[in-house]
Amino acid sequence: METEISKDVALDVLKDEAKKIEQLISNQQHHLCIAQCKAFEEVVDTQMYGFSKQVEYAVRLNIITSSEGHKILADLEHKLNLVYSDVYEKQQDGSEKQEER
Fold it and tell me: A Pfam family matched by this chain, by name (predicted)?
């Protein structure tokens, strides 16, 4: 039996996966693990690699276009960069406050 996957369903699945990665990062941001745990970076890299392969697979199956796949990945990378920048700024602010004491 052959099953047809709609483009909307595929995009929803990929967006859900992207949200899971964002949530993983966001949850750790509150614990400042991002700034202190090298292992966490490896987890994020692994998650991003796996997600990029899912996007690539959807593109190869012509479920989504290459430009849609690139946009999904670029949007996620942009959000992750914002989180990392925020953590870095908070870490810098904390260091400066300690130096003032």
Answer: DUF1507
Q: What is the residue whose two structure tokens read 């990665």? A: 21
Q: pTM of the prediction?
A: 0.72
Provide the sign of the torsion angle of the four alpha carbons 81, 83, 85, 88, taken in this order: negative
Paired tokens of 53? 């392969």
pLDDT tens-place string over residues 42-62: 888 899 999 999 999 999 989
| In the chain, domain spans | 7-100
Domain with residues 7-100, CATH architecture: Orthogonal Bundle (1.10)
Upper half-sphere CA count for residue 3 (Cβ side, 13 Å): 3
Inter-axis angle of helices 7-29 and 38-60, to 10 degrees? 170
